[in-house]
Amino acid sequence: MRSGDVAGAITQIKEGLKCSQSQEVMQRLGALLASPESEPVLRVFADLLQAGG
Fold first, then answer.
1. What is the domain count for the chain?
2. Which of 10, 18, 41, 42 is the most exposed place for a label (fewest CB within 10 A)?
3. Which domain holds residue 29?
4. What is the pLDDT of residues 1-53, one digit of tens each?
5. Residues 1 and 41 sit within 8 Å (Cβ to Cβ)
6. pLDDT at residue number 48
7. CA distances from 50 to 25, 43, 44 (A)
């Protein structure tokens, strides 16, 4: 996310969740998404949810 590659960040999140959905992974993902640098990723997720996708 630091490099501005939103598509790459989303792909890595999706692939990571395929490997594990443990409590620790979910907590770390939540912390990551709560950070200010994740705003572009959250905007993409919001757009997807609004589009029904």
1. 1
2. 18
3. 6-51
4. 777 888 898 899 999 999 999 999 999 999 988 999 899 999 988 998 898 75
5. yes
6. 85
7. 26, 11, 10
